[in-house]
Design a protein that fits this description.
With 570 residues, this protein is mostly helical. It is built from 28 helices and eight strands.
C-alpha cells in the first residue's frame, strides 16, 4: 500500500490533482455558516429539495432539471432527516422554518460544494483521458493541467451552480465518443448515451455541446475511415438503440412522462422569460458578430492570452500528427466541434457571453493546449525543448496567479468587512433594512430588527431566520425609520446609471434591466439617497481591494461593493 502511494506521489497527475483541489478549497466556507448562499444562481442550500419536488408534482416545474438535485438530496439525506425529526410538526410552514436554520443550510451548502469540487476535478481527468485517447499520455497530462488552471472553472468548481456539474458529464460523454471513434467499438456508445443524458438532465444547455458535434464527427468519420464503413451495420444498430434509450431516459428524468403539463410549462419558461429576458446582444448579424468578438476579448479571463497560440498550434497539429490515421484525425476534432456546437446552438441563440456560458469552450480547447505543449517539449533539439519548457512554466505561473485571484476574492469578500462594521456599530434596538437578494447581501444579524426589501413578490423569496420580508415602496423609508440601510452595488447599479440607448454596436440592455431602468419612482429614490437628499448619509463602503492579486471580472456575486447608509439624525 505504501509503495503504491509513493509511486502515485511521483506521478505528474497526482500533483495536477493536488493543485486543482487546493485551488478549489477556499470557496468551501465562503459566506458560511449562513441560512443562504452567496453563489448567485446556485442550487444549494435553498433550491435543490424544492426543485426536485417541483419537477415531479403534477403541473409544477422548476427552472433546472432534477438530476444534480437528486444527487444532492441523497448526499444531504442525514441533514434532511435530522431537520424533519426536529420540526415541531410536519406542516409545511413548520418544516420550512426548521430547515432554514443555519446549521442545516450550512451542511447542505458544504455538501454541495464538496460535490462540485469532486466533479470539477473529474472534468479535468476526463479531458486528460479524452486527449490521451488520440494524442498520447503526455498531451493528456498537459490538457488536464490546462483544465486545472482554467480560472472560471476554478470558481465554478467550488460553488453550487450547475455549470461545473454538467460539464463533468459532458466531458465523460465526449471521452466515450472519442474512444468509440478511435477504437471503432460500439460498446462505448452506452457511456456516451448515459453521460449525455446526465449532462442534459443536470442543466438543459448541455444539449448544445452535442447537437452539432456528434452528428458532424460521425459523418466525417464514416467519410474518411474505411474500417468504420465496413462495420456500418452493427454501428448503426447500436447508435439507434442507445439514441432511443437516451431519449427515453431524458424524458423520464426530466419529468416529461410523469409530469407532462409541468414539463411543457418549463419548456415555455426556458424558451421565453428564462432566455429572452436576459439577452445582451441584438438578434441580428451585428449583435452576433459583436458577441463573437466579445468571446475572443474575454478569453484572458480563462487563460493567459498567449495560451491562444497553443490552441491554434494544437488544432494545426491534427493534420500533421494524424494524417495516416483518419479515425484519430476525426476524434481530435471532437473537442473543437463541441466548442463550435455550443457557440452556435447556445451562445448565438441565447445571445449571452457571461463567464459561465463560455466555460464549455474553455474546457474543450484544453486538448489542443495539451497537444501543442506535448509537441513542443518532445522536439529533437534540446534548445527547443528547454525554451518550450520555460515558456510553458511561465504560462502556468500566470495561470496559477489568475486562479489565486479568484481565491483571494472569495477569502477577502467585502461582505465580511460589512458584517464586521455592522457588528461593531449596531445597537440592540437598531432597526436595519437590507435591499436586494440574499446572494448579494452580507449575512444579516439575527436580531428580529432586520427587514429585507426587494421588488420580487414575497412568495419568490428565500426567507431568513430573524429577518422580516417586506414588500413596500423604497421611498417610504423615512416612515419606516431604519437606522441603517445595506445596499449591494450589483443590485442597485441599474437604478443609478443613466438610461442607455436601446442598442449600441450590437449590444443591448437585457429586458430584466430595462424594467429597473424605467422604474422612475425607485430610480429617483436611489439617486436622491446616494446624493444625500433623503436624511441618510453614506456611513461605510465595503469595496473589494485585490491588492497584489488580479481583479476578478464577470462574476455577479464576487468582488462586489456594498454600501451602508446611516440615518443622519438620531
Amino acid at each position: 500500500m505504501k509503495g503504491r502511494l509513493f509511486k502515485a506521489v511521483r506521478t505528474p497527475l497526482f500533483w495536477i490533482i493536488l493543485v486543482s483541489v487546493a485551488l478549489r478549497l477556499p470557496g468551501l466556507t465562503w459566506g458560511l455558516p449562513a441560512s443562504d448562499g452567496w453563489d448567485d444562481d446556485g442550487v444549494a442550500p435553498r433550491n435543490f429539495l424544492v426543485g426536485l419536488a417541483q419537477t415531479y408534482i403534477p403541473g409544477s416545474y422548476f427552472t433546472y432539471p432534477p438530476l444534480h438535485m437528486l444527487w444532492l438530496a441523497l448526499l444531504s439525506a442525514p441533514g434532511v432527516v435530522l431537520a424533519l425529526l426536529h420540526a415541531p410538526t410536519l406542516n409545511q410552514h413548520d418544516v420550512i422554518g426548521q430547515f432554514i436554520h443555519v446549521p442545516y443550510m450550512t451542511f447542505f451548502a458544504i455538501t454541495a460544494r464538496i460535490l462540485s469540487i469532486v466533479m470539477s476535478v473529474g472534468t479535468l481527468l476526463f479531458i486528460g483521458q479524452l486527449t490521451e485517447t488520440f494524442a498520447g499520455r503526455k498531451a493528456g497530462l498537459y490538457a488536464a493541467a490546462a483544465c486545472a488552471l482554467d480560472a472560471p472553472l476554478v470558481y465554478y468548481g467550488q460553488v453550487t451552480n450547475l455549470d461545473g456539474p454538467y460539464l463533468f458529464w459532458a466531458s465523460l460523454a465526449l471521452w466515450g465518443w472519442v474512444k468509440f471513434l478511435v477504437e471503432r467499438q460500439p460498446r462505448h456508445l452506452r457511456w456516451v448515451a448515459l453521460a449525455s443524458v446526465a449532462a442534459i438532465t443536470t442543466k438543459d444547455q448541455a444539449y448544445a455541446v452535442f447537437l452539432l458535434a456528434l452528428p458532424i464527427s460521425l459523418v466525417l468519420w464514416f467519410s474518411v475511415d474505411r474500417k468504420a464503413r465496413q462495420s456500418w451495420a452493427p454501428i448503426a444498430r447500436s447508435l439507434t438503440l442507445w439514441a432511443t434509450l437516451a431519449g427515453g431516459g431524458l424524458l423520464l428524468i426530466d419529468g416529461a412522462i410523469t409530469n407532462p403539463s409541468g414539463f411543457s410549462k418549463r419548456l415555455a419558461f426556458l424558451l421565453g422569460p428564462a432566455s429572452q429576458d436576459y439577452t445582451s446582444y441584438t438578434a441580428n448579424l451585428e449583435g452576433r458578430f459583436r458577441l463573437l468578438a466579445d468571446m475572443v476579448l474575454q478569453f484572458p479571463r480563462f487563460y493567459p492570452a498567449v495560451t491562444g497560440l497553443l490552441i491554434v498550434m494544437g488544432v494545426a497539429l491534427i493534420w500533421r500528427q494524424f494524417r495516416n490515421d483518419p479515425a484519430k484525425q476525426v476524434a481530435a476534432l471532437v473537442p473543437a466541434l463541441a466548442a463550435l456546437s455550443f457557440t452556435v446552438c447556445f451562445n448565438l441563440l441565447a445571445l449571452r457571453s457571461d463567464n459561465r456560458f463560455l466555460l464549455p469552450q474553455s474546457v474543450f480547447v484544453a486538448p489542443y493546449i495539451g497537444m501543442a505543449a506535448a509537441w513542443l517539449t518532445t522536439r529533437h533539439s534540446w534548445k527547443v525543448r528547454y525554451a518550450a519548457g520555460a515558456g510553458l512554466a511561465t504560462i502556468a505561473c500566470l495561470a496559477v496567479y489568475q486562479c489565486l485571484g479568484i481565491d483571494a476574492a472569495l477569502i477577502n469578500d467585502p461582505r465580511y468587512d460589512m458584517e464586521r462594521w455592522v457588528a461593531a456599530h449596531m445597537q440592540p434596538n437598531d432597526y436595519i433594512e437590507a435591499y436586494g437578494r440574499n446572494a448579494f447581501l452580507p449575512r444579516l444579524p439575527d436580531t428580529g430588527n432586520v427587514a429585507r426589501l426587494d421588488i420580487n413578490p414575497l412568495k419568490r423569496r428565500n426567507p431568513l431566520p430573524g429577518v422580516t420580508e417586506k414588500l413596500a415602496p423604497f421611498d417610504q423609508v423615512e416612515a419606516r425609520d431604519p437606522r441603517f440601510l445595506i445596499i449591494p452595488d450589483f443590485w442597485v447599479a441599474d437604478y443609478l446609471r443613466a438610461v442607455p440607448p436601446e442598442s449600441l454596436n450590437g449590444r443591448k440592455t437585457p429586458r430584466v434591466a430595462e424594467t429597473t431602468l424605467h422604474d422612475t419612482d425607485n430610480r429617483a429614490f436611489f439617486q436622491k439617497l446616494f446624493a444625500g437628499e433623503y436624511g441618510y448619509r453614506l456611513a461605510h463602503v465595503s469595496r473589494y481591494a485585490p491588492g497584489p492579486w488580479p481583479a476578478v471580472e464577470g462574476f455577479e456575486s464576487l468582488g462586489q461593493t456594498v454600501y451602508l447608509f446611516e440615518r443622519a439624525t438620531p
